[in-house]
Amino acid sequence: MLFNSLQGKGAVVRRFALGFVASFAFASAVSAEPFQEVTVGVPVPSLAEAEAWYTKFLGPDTEVLRPVPGIVEFKVAPGVWFQVFEVDDTQPSGAIVRFMVEDMAASQTARTALKIDTGEAVEIPEVVTYSEFADPFGNALGLYQMP
What we know:
- The chain is of the alpha/beta class.
- The protein is about 30% helix and about 30% strand.
- It contains four helices and eight strands, in the order ααβαββββαβββ.
- A hairpin with a 2-residue loop joins β3 and β4.
C-alpha cells in the first residue's frame, strides 16, 4: 500500500518534511567520512519483468549492470545505483525510493505516455512537489521536484 492511502495529506507532508530534515541532519553528521557510492536495492519476483519495466521507467539511456545472476543495477545519478534482485517471496519493506526530477509535469507526462502511472502530484508551496506510486511488484516509489 502506498503511504498516501494510509494517512491523511497533513501526515504525509509532515513525514515527507521530517524525512528531508533527517536526511540533511544525517548527511551533516557523517560528512567527515563520506561514502563513495550508494546502492538501493528492491526485491522483485521476476528479474526479466523488472528489468523491462525499470528500463522503460528510467529511460533507455540509463547505464545498466548485471554484476551476478539475479541482480540488475541501474545508474540513476552520479554515484547512485538502483538495484533490483530476484526473490521467491517479495514482502513490502515499508521503504519508499524517490527520484528527483527537474520538471514534475514533464516527467509525469513522459511516463504516462509509456503507460506508467506516477500518481497525483502534490505541491507544498515553496517546499516540494511530489508524487507516490508503486512499481508492478509493489515497491513504493516517488518522484519529487524542488522549487
